[in-house]
Amino acid sequence: MFKEIFPLIETALDMEPEELAPFILKHLKKIGKINRYNYTSGTGTEIINYAGERIERFQKQLMEAFIWLEREMFVAPMPGTIGEWRFITRRGEKALEEEDFTAYVKGSLLSSETLHPTLARKVKPLFLRGDYDTAIFQAFKIVEVQVRKTGGYSKGDYGVPLMRKAFNVQTGSLTNKKAEESEKQAMSDLFAGAIGLFKNPVSHRFIDDISPEDAADLVRFANFLLKVLGD
After folding, report:
1. Are 133 and 222 part of one and the same domain?
2. Which helix (H) or strand (E) holds 50?
3. Cα–Cα separations (whole angstroms), residue 223 to 60, 106, 219
4. Smallest Cα–Cα separation from 75: which of 106, 108, 47, 33?
5. Is 42 exposed, middle or buried (0-12, 13-18, 19+ CB in 10 A)?
């Protein structure tokens, strides 16, 4: 079944875990009973015939991709069993049914470990579903909310005017008083420009048909702005 489902071994060995994972999930569905140890042990005739002398390298890549499937909740430990038994989750079954792993593969572009907790909780799920324009809008909305909270402003303060008030060179509560005048102005421009371009719904013409890579870059930009705010 390896040869029926997986690409040529030369191709498989060049794949990242998230690229190999869909083939593993399809294979696991065919197998039925899933034991992670048995699956990646490399002792079966089928896997030896498929990988040949590159069996040890392929075993390691199988395990990496299997762990990716577990991390993304496509596969989970089987309840009531001890050891390495696994089952395909509802998310995994849905992905198999729709034959669409694209969004989840692209999810590797945004690492939850490096994202602000609020972005990981509210934005990454949108990104994983492929709703990139909403993910970008929400990311910069979170920046806006954090500026308001950190600066002690009211709910009536929002958008570009809020950024200009919070980072006003002379009176802004978030302005670094020790910075040079040009740096203060640059920080004001940075936040005002970001909110004006990516949080304002009118500006969505800038992000129509945006690629996953560009969307991830913009979410990481919002992440950087949250770090600047010290939260």
Report:
1. yes
2. helix 45-51
3. 33, 18, 6
4. 33
5. middle
Same domain, 81 and 137: no
Q: For position 212, what pLDDT does the model report?
A: 86
**C-alpha pair distances (Å), 75 with each of 99, 100, 109:** 16, 16, 21
Same domain, 89 and 172: no
- Per-residue confidence (pLDDT) for residue 94, from 0 to 100: 86
Please, which residues bridge with residue 88 across strands? 75
Strands laid side by side in the 85-88 sheet: 34-35, 85-88, 75-77
Strands 85-88 and 34-35: antiparallel
In a domain, 52, yes or no: yes
pLDDT of residue 208: 63
Per residue in 58-79, pLDDT (tens digit) is: 999 999 999 999 998 999 999 9
Three-class DSSP category at 77:
strand
Specify whether 153 is located in the same domain as 185.
yes
Instruction: Residue 169: name the closest of 149, 192, 202, 200 by CA.
Output: 192
Our count of domains for the chain comes to 2
Structural domain ending residue among the three candidates 80, 100, 120: 100
Print the domain residue range for 59.
Answer: 2-100
CATH number of the domain residue 54 falls in: 1.10.10.10
Q: What is the residue whose two structure tokens read 């969307």?
A: 215
- Ranges under pLDDT 50 in the chain: 202
Closest to 161 measured CA to CA, from 201, 192, 202: 192
The reported pTM is 0.61
